[in-house]
Amino acid sequence: MARKFFVGGNWKCNGTVEEVKKIVTVLNEAEVPPEEVVDVVVSPPFVFLSLVKSLLRSDFQVAAQNCWVRKGGAFTGEVSAEMLVNLGIPWVILGHSERRLLLGETNEASFPYVSLNFGNITIGRILDWNNVVLAYEPVWAIGTGKVATPTQAREVHTALRKLLHDNVSPEVAASTRIIYGGSVNGANCKELAAQPDVDGFLVGGASLKFLQQMDQSSEE
Ligand code: PEP
């Protein structure tokens, strides 16, 4: 089954209004394959979601970097999934390892319907697998400049697909996109993308790199 390629940009906790506008300008001018071929999704911090959505070209989508696990209410500082839906934000990154390592987030704190932990295999109740993209991100590769080899990525993605096949269904295994994240950049993405079970990327640092380059050149 052909799976649509997926490229997500995780901006993490970065940016000012001016910088966000600059990034969106660059993205709006980028030449990318049509939306029938690739999903391009950018994930700015919560405070910039509406701004990015209002300025971004219509063939690109926007994701939040986290959301609250229950309905809204007396949960100071949290943002619920309903609020994201209300804003027209169709995607959210859940259970990122930075939240687990730095903030002590656990499987229970991630959205209850999306709980799949490869080391300690738990597959939660997912309402509709068509809405799920799985990201394999070795913690040693995130933000370190150390990228998994294409063989390493392929082996893990194939194992994850088998996990879905054996525990969910062959159909879900065949259709679910499994993307790689961890120091992906323009130089290493081609070889990784050529691996049969790699359906795209979650890109952190490199999705903001051109911003740093612009800053440097404006200082020169
Ligand atoms: C990430 O934040 O999910 C990520 C993969 O970051 P980086 O590309 O910087 O390693």
The largest sheet is: 7 strands, parallel
What oligomeric arrangement do these chains adopt? single chain
CATH homologous superfamily assignment: Aldolase class I
Bound molecules: phosphoenolpyruvate
The percent range for strand residues is 5-15%
Highest CATH level, the class:
Alpha Beta
Tally of domains: 1
- End-to-end separation: 49 Å
Protein name: XS zinc finger domain
Subunit structure: Homodimer.
Family: Belongs to the triosephosphate isomerase family.
Describe the protein's architecture and organization:
It is a single chain. With about 220 residues, the chain is an alpha/beta fold. The protein is globular and about 50 Å long. The N and C termini lie far apart (about 50 Å). A seven-stranded parallel beta sheet has the order 4-3-2-1-7-6-5. Helix content is about 35%, strand content about 15%. It has a single domain (about 5-220), classed as Aldolase class I (TIM Barrel). It is built from eight helices and seven strands, in the order βαβαβαβαβααβαβα. Phosphoenolpyruvate binds next to β7. Homodimer. This is XS zinc finger domain. Belongs to the triosephosphate isomerase family. It comes from Musa troglodytarum (fe'i banana).
